[in-house]
Amino acid sequence: MLNKVPEVTAIFWAIKILSTTVGETGADYLAVHVGLGAGRTAICMTGLLIAALLLQLRRRAYVPWIYWLTVVLVSIVGTQLTDLLTDKLEISLYVSTAAFAGALAAIFAIWYGVERTLSIHSIVTTRRELFYWTAILFTFALGTAAGDLATEALGLGFQLGVVAFGMLIVAVAAAYAIGGNPVLTFWLAYILTRPLGASLGDLLSQSRDYGGMGLGTVQTSIVFLTVIVGLVAWVTFEGDDARRTDPAQ
Description:
By secondary structure, this protein is mainly alpha-helical. It is about 80% helix and about 0% strand. The protein has eight helices and no strands. The chain has helices at about 10-35, 35-60, 65-90, 95-115, 125-155, 155-175, 180-205, 215-245. Helix 2 runs antiparallel to helix 3 and helix 4 packs antiparallel against helix 5. The longest helix is centred in the last third of the chain and has 29 residues, at about 215-245. This is Membrane-anchored protein. Keywords: Membrane, Transmembrane, Transmembrane helix. InterPro entries: DUF347 (IPR007136). Pfam families: DUF347.
């Protein structure tokens, strides 16, 4: 099958950050405002994620709306996974961050040991795609735990969290620009966009009493979802135009 992962472009990173923000605000909205609670939210979203992932795995090529729907659902489930450990099981953010980092490192080690590559440009078999989505889930869980650790446990707050994680991403981009390993820098940036998006989501949605801008989870989620839909529609039509221009595709 063809590569099942989109090209890494500015639009890719924009949708990725937006989807992480929706994961943060969407999970909070369902758990708190709708009243589902963390457990039922996790169960419902996991069911939707499994359905989306099965749809994604059945395709033989990259389909933008299916891929990004899966990413948004992974973002929500990854957020809920960390929240369940922190809020229900009362596991320290230091412990969960270290545990998710170790689990992600193990996934990468097994993936590389089996496939001899971690490149996203060669997701052309079902086995590689399963490794890819497993890694993606744990990047979201790790990013959520690391973001909460920085903004809450370490007291950076939402504004400083956005700045700090933004600067780390700029540093990774600079390392790539001067010849850094493209696979390593990609995955580092992918992990860091999760706490950046989460901090941005909290900054926009949380009340002013907690250091946010008070826009609320509903408004923030709707705005960001609307932008995501617009960008996904853009890349879909752009891909259709490219195929019409070049029949070989």
